[in-house]
């Protein structure tokens, strides 16, 4: 059974290689890429079934020891409810984004490198979610980032080159800092395996571990994860990179890649470093654990991200700019309940806070991918995403308008869309912490309320400018008649023979609609989403269970064929 852990990783890797080998045939390469995306989702679904289902029961942890080298000496891959929950988001979003890519990316770009790079990025994301040691977390981060560097630079224009250069330099610095922090943690703890680190931190005297240096190194590592997630004050790379990359790449960066940083925060600080007990008194931050230190830090970063990103989005004059700054604000909403959970006075509130963060991350992955793809479709159909160039698209492109509206309402938090429950859980976690007398919980409620108001403001402005009112001259020229999926031709915005045909644009809108339907479906069937997120949260908080599964469970390598834990 434990061999199932490596299935998504192998599928993504094989697909990346096959798309490289099939470059001479455009149709064959696209077919292989899409089939690989389907196979990846099937592998993730099988892993989801083995680990989390049936919902409401006790989740399972599957462990794979590469080459049968037992932990902590070998390379360990771990599939528990937390990692599988994040893989489910990856599989769903990546498949739909691939479908969009086939219709939106030019033939030369697809044949040259696009699909290979895309699948290698999925390989890096998958490895990051499954790895059981911090050094291989660094390795998988690099696999993911190296692909994203080229994809951000994909169009090779002046603006794209500048954005990619900033993105690459900043992430290379972050990677160097991450490697130094990992080396320091190995020096202080004597191990790289996450479960073994947790076990040793629980008994520092037995392993001669100095906790204060370990706390300092974990804080350095936290800054790297905050950078990857786009949290303030490390958010400045987000707007330029998101606007420069092709729309499906931006959808993956915002919807999936950013969540790797969030996952790393949950896995390391709630599962691994939470095992340590230490009395803290530093700059007004007090506590008896590592989480007591990181809770206020998370809160400060989340609060600044929510407000700064929201204000930035309100002031943008283009759709992609609004969405990019919105992503900064929305990742603050994901981390805010984690800050509440870190300082929660009870285990119930802590579990609720982590569950709220995971539900919000899942909803954000779907809704923000939808919105970036809708923006890309808008640019392909009309030729611009500047608010001053647009207007009246609700009449000229009603299906696209409906998809954009549902994505915006999901992030605003309107029932019965899934985003309503995510935002409700964020408020509920803060409210229950406040009722229990947790320090700062009242301020967390105020910040969440301010962020919710800003979200309404910038999406209302975008909707009014782009879809309401009289069609602009540019919209009139590009869409002289009402267009909906399957009806009428769309005028070419450049007047050439290489403009988007109706079938390609219809495929793009179909993907947007599919994501909108998912937002509705996960809202109506929210009980299932909550059950999976709740199982993931309890897996994240079950340090002893994680340690037992990795260090003592029957994880199987390549030469055996036995089961998992």
Describe this structure in words.
GO terms for molecular function: NADH dehydrogenase (ubiquinone) activity. It comes from Haloferax sulfurifontis ATCC BAA-897. Its main location: membrane. This protein is mostly helical. Helices cover 72% and strands 3% of the residues. It has a domain of 252 residues. Helix 9 packs antiparallel against helix 10, helix 12 runs parallel beside helix 16 and helix 13 runs antiparallel to helix 15. It starts with 6 loop residues before the first helix and ends in a 13-residue tail after the last helix.
The unreliable regions are 492-500, 555-565
Sheet of most strands: 2 strands, antiparallel
Helix run count: 21
Strand order of the largest sheet: 1-2
Mean pLDDT: 89
- What helical percentage do the residues reach? over 70%
Query: Mind telling me the C-alpha Rg?
Result: 23 Å
Oligomer class: single chain
Shape descriptor reads: globular
Order of helices and strands: HHEEHHHHHHHHEEHHHHHHHHHHH
Counted beta strands: 4
Q: Please give the alpha-carbon distance between the first and last residues.
A: 9 Å
Q: How much strand?
A: under 5%
Keywords:
single chain, 565 residues, mainly alpha, two-stranded antiparallel sheet, two-stranded antiparallel ribbon, 21 helices
Describe how the helices and strands are arranged.
Elements: H1 7-21, H2 26-51, E1 62-65, E2 76-79, H3 81-104, H4 107-130, H5 134-152, H6 158-189, H7 194-202, H8 211-229, H9 238-244, H10 247-272, E3 277-282, E4 285-289, H11 290-314, H12 319-342, H13 347-382, H14 393-396, H15 398-412, H16 418-435, H17 441-466, H18 473-478, H19 502-524, H20 526-541, H21 543-552
Antiparallel strand pairs: 1-2, 3-4
Helix pairs in contact: 1-2, 1-4, 2-3, 2-4, 3-4, 3-10, 3-13, 3-19, 3-20, 4-5, 4-10, 5-6, 5-10, 6-8, 6-9, 7-21, 8-10, 9-10, 9-12, 10-12, 10-13, 11-12, 11-17, 12-13, 12-16, 12-17, 13-15, 13-16, 13-19, 13-20, 15-16, 15-17, 15-19, 16-17, 16-19, 19-20
């Amino acid at each position: 059974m434990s061999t199932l852990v490596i299935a998504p990783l192998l599928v993504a890797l094989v697909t990346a290689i096959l798309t490289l080998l099939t470059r001479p045939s455009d149709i064959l390469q696209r077919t292989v890429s899409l089939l690989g995306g389907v196979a990846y989702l099937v592998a993730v679904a099988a892993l989801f079934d083995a680990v989390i289902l049936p919902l409401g029961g006790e989740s399972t942890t599957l462990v794979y020891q590469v080459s049968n080298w037992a932990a902590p000496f070998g390379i360990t891959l771990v599939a528990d409810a937390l990692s599988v929950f994040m893989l489910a988001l990856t599989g769903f979003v990546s498949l739909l984004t691939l479908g969009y890519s086939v219709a939106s990316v030019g033939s030369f770009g697809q044949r040259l490198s696009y699909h290979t790079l895309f699948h290698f990025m999925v390989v890096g994301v998958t490895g990051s979610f499954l790895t059981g040691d911090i050094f291989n977390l660094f390795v998988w981060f690099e696999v993911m980032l190296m692909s994203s560097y080229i994809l951000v630079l994909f169009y090779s224009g002046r603006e794209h080159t500048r954005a990619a250069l900033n993105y690459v330099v900043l992430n290379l610095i972050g990677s160097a800092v991450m490697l130094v922090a990992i080396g320091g943690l190995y020096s202080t703890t004597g191990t790289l395996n996450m479960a073994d680190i947790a076990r040793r931190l629980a008994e520092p005297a037995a392993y001669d571990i100095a906790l204060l240096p370990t706390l300092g190194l974990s804080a350095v590592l936290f800054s790297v994860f905050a950078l990857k997630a786009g949290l303030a004050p490390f958010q400045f790379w987000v707007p330029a990179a998101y606007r420069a990359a092709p729309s499906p790449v931006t959808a993956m960066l915002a919807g999936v890649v950013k969540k790797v940083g969030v996952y790393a925060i949950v896995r390391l600080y709630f599962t691994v470093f939470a095992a340590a007990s230490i009395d803290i008194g530093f700059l007004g931050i007090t506590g008896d654990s590592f989480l007591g230190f990181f809770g206020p830090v998370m809160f400060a970063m989340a609060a600044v991200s929510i407000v700064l990103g929201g204000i930035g989005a309100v002031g943008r004059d283009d759709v992609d700019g609004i969405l990019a700054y919105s992503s900064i604000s929305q990742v603050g909403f994901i981390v805010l309940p984690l800050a509440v959970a870190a300082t929660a006075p009870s285990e119930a509130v802590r579990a609720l806070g982590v569950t709220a963060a995971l539900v919000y991350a899942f909803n954000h992955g779907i809704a923000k991918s939808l919105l970036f793809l809708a923006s890309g479709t808008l640019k392909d159909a009309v030729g611009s995403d500047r608010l001053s160039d647009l207007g009246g698209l609700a009449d000229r492109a009603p299906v696209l308008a409906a998809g954009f509206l549902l994505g915006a309402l999901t992030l605003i938090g309107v029932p019965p869309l899934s985003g309503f429950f995510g935002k409700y859980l964020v408020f509920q976690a803060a409210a229950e912490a406040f009722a229990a007398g947790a320090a700062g919980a009242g301020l967390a409620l105020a910040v969440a309320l301010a962020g919710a108001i800003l979200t309404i403001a910038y999406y209302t402005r975008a909707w009014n400018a782009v879809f309401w009112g009289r069609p602009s001259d540019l919209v009139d020229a590009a869409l002289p008649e009402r267009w909906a999926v399957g009806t009428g031709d769309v005028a070419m915005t450049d007047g050439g023979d290489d403009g988007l045909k109706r079938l390609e644009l219809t495929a793009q809108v179909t993907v947007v609609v599919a994501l909108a339907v998912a937002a509705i479906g996960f809202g109506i069937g929210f009980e299932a989403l909550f059950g999976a997120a709740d199982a993931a949260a309890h897996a994240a908080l079950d340090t002893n269970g994680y340690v037992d599964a990795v260090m003592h469970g029957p994880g199987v390598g390549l030469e055996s064929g036995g089961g998992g834990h």
